[in-house]
Amino acid sequence: GAVVSQHPSRVICKSGTSVKIECRSLDFQATTMFWYRQFPKQSLMLMATSNEGSKATYEQGVEKDKFLINHASLTLSTLTVTSAHPEDSSFYICSAEIQDISGLGGEQFFGPGTRLTVL
Amino acid sequence: LAKTTQPISMDSYEGQEVNITCSHNNIATNDYITWYQQFPSQGPRFIIQGYKTKVTNEVASLFIPADRKSSTLSLPRVSLSDTAVYYCLVGLINDYKLSFGAGTTVTVRA
Q1: What is the pLDDT of residues B17-53, one digit of tens each?
Q2: In this complex, do B44 and A44 lie within 8 Å of one another by their Cβ atoms?
Q3: pLDDT of residue A108
Q4: Residues 6 or more apart whose Cβ sits within 8 Å of residue B46
Q5: pLDDT digits 0-9 by tens, A8-54
Q6: Which member of A6, A28, A29, A109 has the lowest number of beta carbons within 10 Å of its beta carbon?
Q7: Which of B4, B45, B57, B94 to mutate to test the interface with A (most CBs of A within 10 A)?
């Protein structure tokens, strides 16, 4: 099946710094990628939809100026957590969509996640 | 997206069949039912998807009654490695703004 990678897998940073997380589709092109956040013992929450060549669409309550998303190519989307604070510590997961031949549907493939710890 | 309700947790033993039922009373006509599996500190993994009746693949079976207001994921002969959180999602097949509920934590014991 299709493979989605994330880098780094784990990052620890100081409060106030910015952290960039990369999401790559390794063997397919993805016009749309998604970013999720998951706190301990909780479910995944969609943060934003990343569209190649255009601005990301953020879910309600997600600060677009704090979570910068760039989808510059069909295989790469990046999430930058700006001025990170301890409450931003979480597990960030991306996913990429493959459209099926009919164009009516597709399947999402998830990355392995990035564990962010802000001290 | 239709709201789903699943049991919070289920315990089982190796070799047993595990059946997880998901309620989705407000499922729409064009909605599909999809199940994902998530291991700790990993991204979710697609298990199976269906619209009605029964779907089977090499990993699991999905049973959907005629009214489609619920569905049951069946994991045959589970092993310790099947310990994970299982999510039931309902939505349009081409709507990939997935909305994950709380999921069901399945613990398989030796």
Answers
A1: 999 999 999 999 988 999 999 999 999 999 999 999 9
A2: yes
A3: 82
A4: A107, A108, A109, B34, B35, B36
A5: 999 999 999 999 999 999 988 888 899 999 999 899 999 999 888 88
A6: A29
A7: B94
DSSP bridge pairs for B37:
B45, B86
In whole angstroms, give the CA distance from residue A20 to residue B61: 39
3-state DSSP: chain B helix, strand, coil percent, rounded to 5? 5, 50, 45
pLDDT tens digits, one per residue of B92-108: 776 666 778 889 999 99
Please name the residue that has the structure tokens 């489609």.
B68
For A102, nearest residue in chain B (alpha carbons): B94
Contact list in A for residue B45 (CB cut-off 8 A) is: 110
pLDDT by residue (tens digit) across B9-25? 999 999 999 999 999 99
> A76: which residues sit within 8 A by CB, 6+ positions away?
A22, A23, A24, A25
